[in-house]
Amino acid sequence: MKSVLTFKSGKFYFSEEYDVSQIDSLLVRATVLNETIVDLPILPELASQIDPDIMYSSISGTAAIEGNPITGEDVKRIAQGEELQIYSKKDQQEIKNLINAYDILAGFKPTADPLIIDEGIICTLHEAITHDLPDENNVPGKYRNGLVYVGDKAHGGVYTPPKILKDIQNLMQEFVEWINSEEILSLNPFVRAALAHYYLGIIHPFWDGNGRTARLLEALLLQGANIKYVPRELSNYYYRNVDEYYISFSKSLQLKKEITPFLRFYLEGAVDSLTRMKEVIVSFIRKFSLRDYYRSERKTKKLTARQFELLDLLLDNPVTFTLKDLHDSKTFSILYGKASTQTARRDLKKLAAQGLLLGDENNKYTLNFRVLG
Predict the structure, then answer these.
(1) Helix axes 89-106, 210-224, angle to 10 degrees
(2) Which domain holds residue 246?
(3) Residue 89: left (phi > 0), alpha (psi -120 to 50), or beta?
(4) Which of 33, 298, 349, 364 is deepest in the core (most CB within 10 A)?
């Protein structure tokens, strides 16, 4: 732990202390999940689908925490150059700025050693985030010199960050020195990224854009440590649990010399994000393998053309259906509209016998995604 005496705000503490009983199991789960995902074969087709979507939803999430209403789908449209009249110019500019900031992040690649950060990186991110936004006080990339209040009673109370420029300059210098110290560099990268996010938020060095800058700094450190997807997915978790997000800051502030509440909330988000992404990747790999298996079964004439097409259709539209649906539903009628009921029933029985479909006591069928184990 490091304490710094400010001129106007008393002692300020930088602490890596936390309650091991509350944190270590979450830390192990997050670390193991990340190692599992890193080892999974991410096919180019999958990467091209999920990477942009995660970025757009992340930008929407981190902006929404600050009140921006633009959805992930509309972030994509703005990224493609559209001007959307249903949103204000300010809201759209915030999104354009975040797109630029994420481009800056993309320039930092994972390294064997922990990423060293400096005030220049932090100010560059802030400058990108607040570029060309109307604010009578905020100067992009420059520290504030004045009083601000953070939080509200509903989220644990109002906090007054250090208020004069000299204190902010001193604390930012101490912060960078501390976050790059051997002691902090030796911590699990999940913990170091959380510390950076929390303490930059507590110093609150800018007039505007502090939360977005802190979340991007966190993402940068996670990305540099080769932690997959969490750097961007966490913003969505914070937005979905925004009240708990702010309360975790307030609870940690009240403790002063440890950050257990914030770290626990953050790691729960990391585990949630990694679990979601693991499910997405495994599902894609399973679908890819099944499609290849179906082709093999068709090639050896264990499946008819119609049976193969039914399975292929269900891979992309995994619905529960009945024999009657094969004729009545638009989804299936193109395959079975001209086939007899007896033919359709025979197909279902054969596919169920081969374990490719699962049937229940109500004669409803679903695709068996686990036929290969």
Answers:
(1) 20
(2) 2-281
(3) alpha
(4) 33
Considering 215, 248, 281, which residue would you say is the last residue of a domain?
A: 281
Taking Cα atoms as reference points, which of 147, 142, 118 lies closest to residue 130?
142
Angle between helices 44-64 and 89-106 (to 10 degrees): 130
CATH number of the domain at 158, please.
Answer: 1.10.3290.10
Q: Do residues 277 and 53 lie in contact, with contact meaning Cβ atoms separated by under 8 Å?
A: no
Q: Do residues 328 and 196 share a domain?
A: no
Q: What is the CB-side half-sphere exposure of residue 152 using CA atoms within 13 A?
A: 2
Q: What is the pLDDT of residues 120-139, one digit of tens each?
A: 999 999 999 999 999 999 99
pLDDT per residue as tens digits for the range 200-249:
999 999 999 999 999 999 999 999 999 988 999 999 999 999 999 999 99
336/230 same-domain check = no
CB-based contacts of 247-251 (< 8 A; 24+ apart in sequence): 247/155, 247/156, 249/151, 249/155, 249/156, 249/159, 249/198, 249/201, 249/202, 250/151, 250/155, 250/156, 250/157, 250/159, 251/156
How does DSSP classify residue 164?
S
Contact indicator for 235, 62 with CB cutoff of 8 Å:
yes
Q: How far are the Cα atoms of 26, 276, 285 from residue 272, in angstroms, in the given order?
A: 10, 6, 20
**Which positions ≥6 away from 17 have C-beta within 8 Å?**
1, 257, 258, 259
Q: What's the whole-model pTM score?
A: 0.88
Q: pLDDT (tens digit, 9 = 90+) per residue, 41-51?
A: 776 777 777 88
